[in-house]
UniProtKB/TrEMBL annotation:
Positions of transmembrane segments: 229-251
Domain Methyltransferase: 54-158
SUPFAM superfamilies tied to this protein: S-adenosyl-L-methionine-dependent methyltransferases
Alphabetical GO biological process terms: methylation
Protein's name according to its UniProt entry: Class I SAM-dependent methyltransferase
Domain of life where this protein originates: Bacteria
InterPro entries noted in UniProt: Methyltranfer_dom, SAM-dependent_MTases_sf
The organism of origin for this protein: Hymenobacter negativus
GO MF annotation list: methyltransferase activity
């Protein structure tokens, strides 16, 4: 099924006021397991750096929730958030102006083409690379755009059932994906090809995370795909499953997994 129309509808609902958008971000932070893993890695990176005037690239910013979270850690950080969708970029610029975060700028850019040599201390790519066929070109551009010692943080589905694909005959749950998931060695090799030398990769979305994802994301998306009328039912559905999902997310983010449907990858220039 196509996920973008549902995302667009959600954006329209929560973009009506800055208060609603802040609420939306906080709900995403709690509900989306990838956010738990990404925030954990970002806290490690940020330790001792909040007073430094650093430059950050949010490569494929989407709703802008990671830019919002990062910009709240330090007003000294300058963040450039790029995305290919004009409407999301415009909405995000308006929101961040409304809340007075002048250290943030959103821009329309294609990651396959975009490059700012030696400009960023950190680049972030969360659930983006599974949408881009020319992934090595993107990795090359980000590598060139990082300063020496800069880090790229990636969250993406793995080939161990990412995109809810478990057998050769199955197709991705999300039809916008151009690949079902990365092999952990494959993505490391592609990053080396792009110029990265030090790379760390681990699995996310182990057994607890996979259960949480089905309850918190897959089933609601399937319901909304059938009818937008399910928006009325969603608050009651989440009132029941939300506490269980929080507990499952907590376990998943604090457990080392031998396998998982997601990958967290860090690469340094």
């Amino acid at each position: 099924m196509y996920y973008d129309p549902i995302k667009k509808t959600l954006g329209q609902v929560f973009n009506r006021t800055p208060w609603l958008r802040r609420l939306f971000y906080h709900l995403l932070d709690l509900l989306l397991l990838r956010t738990w893993h990404v925030h954990r890695e970002l806290r490690r990176w940020a330790k001792g750096r909040t007073q430094e005037p650093l430059h950050i690239l949010d490569a494929g910013s989407g709703y802008g929730q990671y830019t919002y979270w990062l910009s709240g850690l330090s007003s000294k950080w300058n963040i450039l958030a790029v995305d290919v969708k004009d409407d999301q970029v415009a909405d995000s610029n308006q929101f961040f102006r409304q809340i007075g975060r002048k250290n943030v700028q959103f821009a329309v850019q294609d990651l396959v083409l975009y490059q700012e040599p030696n400009s960023f201390d950190l680049a972030l790519s969360v659930d983006v690379m599974e949408h881009i066929l020319e992934d090595v070109e993107v990795f090359r551009n980000i590598h060139a755009s990082l300063k020496d010692g800069g880090m790229l943080l990636i969250s993406t589905p793995s080939d161990q059932g990412g995109s809810d694909v478990h057998d050769d005959g199955e197709t991705s749950f999300i039809e916008e994906h151009v690949r079902d998931g990365y092999n952990i060695r494959e993505i490391q090799q592609k990053l080396r090809t792009a110029g990265f030398e030090r790379i760390e990769a681990r699995y996310s979305y182990g057994e607890p995370g996979q259960i949480s994802w089905r309850l918190s994301m897959k089933y609601p998306i399937l319901m909304l795909g059938k009818s937008r009328a399910f928006f009325i039912v969603l608050p009651f559905y989440y009132a029941v499953v939300f506490p269980f999902c929080l507990l499952l997310n907590w376990f998943d983010a604090r457990t080392a997994h031998d396998s998982g449907t997601g990958l967290i990858v860090k690469a340094w220039k």
